[in-house]
Design brief:
Blueprint: E1 4-9, H1 17-28, E2 33-36, H2 41-44, H3 54-65, E3 69-73, H4 81-86, H5 113-130, E4 136-140, H6 155-169, H7 172-178, H8 206-234, E5 240-241, E6 243-244, H9 253-257, E7 264-266, H10 276-290, E8 296-300, H11 319-329, E9 332-337, H12 363-376, E10 390-393, H13 396-402, H14 414-427, E11 432-435, E12 446-449, H15 457-468, E13 472-476, H16 498-501, E14 503-508, E15 516-520, E16 526-529, E17 533-537, E18 541-546, E19 555-562, E20 565-570, E21 573-574, H17 576-590, E22 603-609, E23 614-620, E24 626-636, E25 647-652, E26 657-661
Parallel strand pairs: 1-2, 1-9, 2-3, 3-4, 4-5, 6-7, 7-8, 8-9, 10-11, 10-12, 12-13, 13-20
Antiparallel strand pairs: 14-17, 15-16, 15-18, 16-21, 18-19, 19-20, 22-23, 23-26, 24-25, 24-26
Helix pairs in contact: 5-8, 10-14, 14-17
The structure holds alpha-D-galactopyranose.
Length: about 675
């Protein structure tokens, strides 16, 4: 089958004569799969209950005739104008009570029974009509849930929230206890008194906000699941997915993963950010880990520029190829783009496409077609998997709670802190999984916990059990502070982790914007910013101290032997070099090696393995050509050479890629 290659296909934007050319050029570009129909609702149902699928039949038949697989969208991402006119109550409202009007897309309240009923009706039509169609390969439900309408605060949502709370808490007393409503005279006498956390004179109740984030995620998921139920009933053999977004706060990718047959991601690397491939690395690892190593799909990326950043430069030559191979190297079995043919009108006419305004005689089309050919030349990668000895923990509930207002510092940014911890592992060439706190940890030699503010007692016990059994654990500042309801764990910070870490935190000293302090201790000498805290040792040893600032002389990096393992702690945000030094030492203690020894700076290396084959991917993210020495000769499957040829040294141009396999025979 090979790695799937293609993009979003929006034929309704074009007269039918163009479609034949589309098919011809798709073949020329080695397209194997398109995602079709994402925004076709208004065209297939121009008036309520009046269906016009004839044109879409021809699209599907044409694609089938060309041997192109269709990941068929359920078309529900942008309700048609007649629906919001007939039912304005489907329109979402912001926390300020302001309605969000039609005119863009995703203008629906996720809790709206009217929206859901119309969506389900459409999906029933689609699934009935295209069940068994030779092109139908997968279902693509909705589109980027929560991208524009992250949460809705309308009356319909309020009712749905109250229903959700009744199920969760059963009694209003339990709700009052969980939400600490004794504070500020907020005690409820009845569930009917509860509202969404709308804009209030001051900070709305944090536990209420946290539950609303949970509810919002579940409301979006309920839309997905309502459509999925129809598809499972009518086309049980067709796998189902939806395109998630990277580090997307409203949608808990781990919770969704259980309901997806394959993880799918839209990722738009920023050509102006020199290190965006590291953010990509983190998100790709999360996608692969979410379903325990199952290959995932890069469902959208840009062939070149996007239209939605303030300044939208093209991807320089080779960058699109490199970043596409990065997805494959990190476990993707599909590389698709937004979109096939560049629109002439509408909001995305300056967003690049596989087939640009300039046609086939363009750098973009050539690079796309070359990549299509290259991917097609290497069947066998799909289905292979990677192994990692390091796990980095990520948890949406902690993220939601951390970034609520009224904290010691509102500068703590979950995504940024996660990357601070991921970067040194990526740069050291170490394979890493990104997993939720509930995941079994015993198979990992090292577990990294960046800033897990919300931690349940059972979550803390799992970490302790992991270390007791011999694991190496790094925990960072402001972790283990509150329970699932954003209530501080009693017993001194971080109460659930004190025994494991061998310390207590007496006071938080967040650092002011632009302020940094010095840290000293042998190899651990450098700067720190963002956060500091007053640590008392309770069995741990100090590896480094603050040397300037109010906390000069107090420990900041500690190590504690616990059972058979070791718990390390960092009570600040260490600068990048310090973070690297610390993680290098912890890795050495854990016996975790990089994928390849002696990798030049900027080169990423990963491995995917199947029953009989092994692929080593080398990706040069740097601006200079480099050479990489291999421990044993391998064959570069992308280089023109005789099949049995093998080399012990690989030359990589700037933005160069090599896919190495073991020599034949
Ligand atoms: C998202 C959407 C697409 C398109 C692209 C543009 O990924 O899913 O419909 O708008 O962004 O980058």
């Amino acid at each position: 089958m090979g790695i799937q290659f293609g993009g979003d296909y929006n034929p309704e934007q074009w007269p039918e004569e163009v479609w034949a050319e589309d098919l011809k050029l798709m073949k020329a570009a080695h397209v194997t799969m398109v995602t079709a129909g994402i925004f076709s609702w208004a065209k297939v149902e121009p008036r309520p209950g009046e269906w016009d699928f004839g044109w879409f039949d021809r699209v599907m038949d044409g694609l089938a005739g060309a041997g192109i697989a269709v990941c068929l969208a359920t078309m529900t991402a942008s309700p048609p104008p007649w629906l919001s006119r007939a039912h304005p109550e489907i329109l979402p409202e912001g926390p300020d009570g302001q309605r969000r009007w039609p005119g863009g897309r995703q203008h629906y309240c996720p809790s709206s029974p009217v929206y859901r009923a119309h969506a389900v009706r459409l999906v029933e039509q689609l699934a009935t009509r295209y069940a068994g169609h030779p092109a139908l390969t997968m279902w693509h439900v909705g589109n980027e849930y929560g991208c524009h309408t992250r949460q809705c605060f309308c009356e319909v949502s309020a009712d749905d929230f109250r229903r959700w709370l009744r199920t969760r808490y059963e009694s209003v007393d339990a709700l009052n206890a969980a939400w600490s409503t004794a504070f500020w005279s907020q005690a409820y006498g009845d569930f009917d008194e509860v509202l969404p956390p709308r804009t209030a004179p001051t900070f709305p109740n944090p536990a209420q906000q946290l539950d609303y984030l949970r509810f919002g995620d579940e409301a979006l998921r309920a839309c997905y699941l309502a459509e999925k139920a129809v598809l499972t009933r009518l086309t049980p053999e067709v796998p189902i997915t939806t395109n998630l977004m990277p580090q997307h706060k409203p949608v808990d990718a781990f919770a969704w993963s259980a309901h997806m047959d394959a993880m799918a991601l839209d990722f738009y690397q920023d050509p102006y950010a020199s290190d965006d491939h590291i953010r990509a690395g983190y998100v790709f690892d999360l996608m692969r880990s979410a379903r325990s190593g199952q290959p995932w799909m890069l469902l959208e990326q840009a062939p070149s520029a996007v239209n939605w950043r303030p300044r939208n430069g093209p991807k320089p030559p080779g960058a699109m190829r490199l970043w596409s191979w990065q997805a494959v190297a990190q476990g993707a079995d599909a590389v698709l783009y937004f979109q096939w043919r560049q629109s002439l009108g509408g909001a995305e006419k300056f967003h690049s496409a596989m087939l640009p305004h300039g046609g086939t005689d363009t750098r973009i089309f050539r690079e796309v077609a070359d990549l299509g050919r290259e991917l097609a030349s290497l069947p066998g990668i799909e289905g292979t998997r990677s192994r990692a000895e390091v796990a980095l923990l990520a948890d949406w509930h902690s993220w939601w709670a951390l970034e609520l207002d009224s904290k010691p510092s509102t500068a703590l940014d979950h995504s940024r802190i996660a990357l601070d911890h991921y970067r040194p592992l990526f740069e050291a060439g170490v394979a890493c999984d990104v997993v939720p706190p509930q995941r079994e940890l015993s198979g990992y030699r090292l577990v990294v916990v960046p800033n897990l503010y919300l931690l349940t007692m059972s979550g803390a016990e799992r970490l302790a059990a992991y270390v007791r059994a011999g694991g190496q654990l790094l925990v960072s500042f402001f972790s283990g502070i509150v329970d699932a309801h954003d209530r501080v764990h009693p017993g001194g910070y971080p109460a659930p982790l004190r025994e494991l870490l061998g310390l207590r935190v007496e006071e938080f000293w967040p650092l002011d914007a632009g302020r940094s302090v010095s840290v000293g201790g042998g190899a651990y000498t450098g700067r720190a910013d963002l956060w500091s805290e007053a640590i008392d040792l309770e069995g741990a040893e100090a590896l480094a101290h603050f040397t300037t600032g109010e906390l000069a002389g107090r420990p900041v990096v500690t190590r504690h032997t616990y059972g058979q393992g070791t718990a390390w702690y960092a009570g600040t945000r260490l600068d990048a070099a310090l973070m690297r030094a610390l993680l290098d030492d912890i890795r050495a203690a854990a016996g975790v090696l990089p994928v390849l020894p002696g990798l030049p700076a900027g080169v990423q290396a990963t491995v995917r393995e199947g029953a009989d084959e092994r692929y080593v991917f080398l990706l040069n993210h740097g601006a200079e050509a480099v050479e990489v020495d291999l421990p044993a000769p391998m064959r570069d499957a992308l280089a023109a050479q005789d099949a049995a040829g093998a080399t012990g040294r690989v030359a990589l141009a700037a933005r160069g890629v090599a896919v190495l396999t073991d020599p034949v025979g």
